[in-house]
Specification:
Blueprint: H1 36-43, E1 45-52, E2 55-62, H2 67-73, E3 92-95, H3 98-103, H4 109-115, E4 125-127, E5 140-143
Parallel strand pairs: 1-5
Antiparallel strand pairs: 1-2, 3-4, 3-5
């Protein structure tokens, strides 16, 4: 019988020493490093009030979420026929406070093109899919127009996915 040789076990994965990992900036099984400030921002929520013909509804919206997504998650009737792809104006909202409107990023040319088609356009009109929650917008008040113009499927309201 031939003599047995014991070989050291080899790993295909490089050994990572603890000195190279910073627990605050890395997560196990994450594809991107997330720092503490980003984690706090993600868990932070702002207060947004939607006004429509039936009254008002105040909701909490996570920072980084669009008003269209927030409306859908809270059963607020904001259509969004194109699902946020800037191909319609059915998620048209009116920012009720000029000060809040001025805190928003300027609308892109594509958003302005779609807003030109919106029903009841005002100086503070925006598309809900383009208004993203951020801490300085806490207390945002949005009015929903009485109607929308949906040329593709007039009269049909698709359910959000």
């Amino acid at each position: 019988m031939p003599p047995l040789t014991i070989r050291p076990k080899r790993s295909f994965f490089p050994i990572v020493q603890k000195d190279y990992l910073e627990p605050a900036s890395c997560k196990l099984f994450s594809t991107t490093a997330i720092g503490n400030s980003q984690e706090k921002e993600e868990s932070q929520k702002i207060s947004v009030t939607f006004f429509d013909k039936d009254g008002e509804q105040e909701i909490k919206v996570p920072v980084g979420m669009s008003m269209l997504e927030a409306a859908h998650e809270n059963d607020i009737e904001l259509e969004g026929a194109c699902e946020g792809s800037l191909a319609c104006s059915t998620c048209h909202v009116i920012v009720m406070d000029v000060e809040q409107y001025n805190k928003l990023e300027d609308p892109t040319d594509e958003e302005n093109d779609m807003l030109d088609l919106a029903f009841g356009l005002t100086e503070t009109s925006r598309l809900g899919c383009q208004v993203i929650a951020k801490p300085e917008l806490d207390g945002l008040r949005l009015a929903l127009p009485a109607a929308t113009r949906n040329f593709a499927v007039d009269g049909y309201k698709p359910k959000p996915h």
